[in-house]
């Protein structure tokens, strides 16, 4: 029988440039959805200092990005949080973080199908008077996301690029109209004044603000498909954080000016979900409000696709290392996509949606909020652990990086991330609107998943030492050809 020497298909290396990766990350944040759907609640909870809150959150994440991107130049593994935490804090901690990352990213992605269903249902009913049950929209979204993720990564980048330009474009049209008309009572910078930026509601505001950046760190997941990843990954990370911080702050300030600093909270209290649509209608025209309704649906779809792609690549990285079944690491021979991982993620989404639909749950208040919340908490915790891993990693290798990048910024980031985590947890009632028992369950899920991952790591160490020994290895290390000092990962 002839031996098959056909090489196994791999991810398409050298496919993604800085702009492509930045599109993935910014699309995952869903700027239009964050502004139209979440920013009104941030203003309601924290006051008109909301624009400053988004800038502050962006600054904190930029500090995190210093150590994160510096480490990315020395880590060739595509496992992102998992790889970084493994190389800095040890293999057991790395496996625990991998399990938490899969849980958190899936929670963020699957929960968003509730938002897709709600947005699509309301838009179709408003524009065409057709009432379709929400699970139909959610499951249709699952199918479309699967198809786009099944295709090549450059196809996904093009789709996200078009959708991102459209959703940011309608917000910029609104912003220009408000600026040209001078807002409700003339333009001013009251929202950035210290009295408003540091008000009693700042803590609640920051809980919303940090949640608006979730997914920006996923730049490192695309390392295997990036062109010149040592340059591309850091650039894309800084571009994503910088763009989101400035864009969020600018648009949030504009919407405050559209109603007036003294009247915007009253307008939100009357109807928080219509704030942006009312402004679009009044300042641009009815067509802009209708377009915004449609583009919110596409905005959520773009976020779902970006998270789907990130999850699939995380799953692929763990499967190729033996943490997950090898079958999940299979690459489509034509499209170069991790299609088997994509099928699993799609099936999981459909099962969760089906369960919530069968239980008669609300797609927004329960599928979105309840499923998303532990995902947000998990990702912020992973960011803190990744920042903590940076100084430990650089103590173990020979390098020429400065102390500012390898010690000062990462340590500061750990403290800032710990503060952000505290804010998110302490203000969880504002985020979920759920009972104390439900909130407690949502919080406890995160350490439980992390502990389960640690148990898996210890099992791998005892039962599969050969797999455990090569966890988070860079490609050249895995091939037995290390070209730089390897980290000395310990338990």
What structural keywords apply?
Amino acid/polyamine transporter I, disordered C terminus, single chain, mainly alpha
What does it look like?
InterPro entries: AA/rel_permease1, APC_superfamily. Keywords: Cell membrane, Membrane, Transmembrane, Transmembrane helix. Its main location: membrane. It is a multi-pass membrane protein. Helices cover about 75% and strands about 0% of the residues. The chain is an all-alpha fold and about 500 residues long. It has a single domain, classed as Amino acid/polyamine transporter I, CATH 1.20.1740.10. Helix 3 (about 50-70) crosses helix 9 (about 200-210), helix 4 (about 80-90) packs antiparallel against helix 5 (about 90-130) and helix 5 runs antiparallel to helix 13 (about 285-320). The chain is globular, with a radius of gyration of 22 Å.
Describe the structure in brief.
By secondary structure, the protein is mostly helical.
CATH architecture: Up-down Bundle
Mean pLDDT: 89
Order of helices and strands: HHHHHHHHHHHHHHHHHHHH
What fold name goes in the CATH topology slot?
Amino acid/polyamine transporter I
Q: Rg, please?
A: 22 Å
Work out the number of β strands.
0
Structural class: mainly alpha
Fraction in beta strands: under 5%
- CA distance, first residue to last residue: 45 Å
Main sheet properties: none
**Helix count, DSSP H or I runs of 4 or more residues:** 20
Helix content: over 70%
Low-pLDDT segments: 480-491
What is the overall shape?
globular
How many separate domains? Answer: 1
